Amino acid sequence: MDSMNIEKGGMWSAIINPYIEGQLKKKTGVNADIDLGIKATTDKNGRTHVHIDLDGDLSEEGWKQLLILIGVPKIVTKIL
Fold it and tell me: What distances in angstroms separate CA 42 from CA 3, 10, 35, 51, one per listed residue?
């Protein structure tokens, strides 16, 4: 069984998090602090199980903007 881990706060996380933050800002205009953790395991049948743990800190306005960009109806964002 093969496995790959990118732990929160680890070296790879320190490289990947700023990249994701930059891409999010570039493509959506939303500023967010991202903390990403990934765990992937491949079993003997070749199937891979991936667990992604993503924490993000952003403003309320940024959160609403992000929800609208991914297609959440505006009525839902008004409730928030």
Answer: 6, 22, 24, 12
Mean pLDDT, rounded, of the chain: 81
The residue ranges of every structural domain in the chain are 2-79
Decide if 8 contacts 36 (C-beta within 8 A).
yes
Q: What is the pLDDT of residues 38-76, one digit of tens each?
A: 888 888 788 888 888 888 888 988 888 888 888 877 666
Question: What does the buried/exposed string (b/e) look like for 40-77 if buried means 16 or more CB atoms within 10 Å of the residue's CB?
Answer: eeeeeeeeeeeeeeeebebeeebbbebeeeeeeeeeee
Residue 80 has pLDDT above 70, yes or no: no
Q: What count of Cα atoms within 13 Å lies in the side-chain half-sphere of residue 66?
A: 14
Tokens representing 2? 């093969």
Residue percentage of the chain with pLDDT more than 70: 81
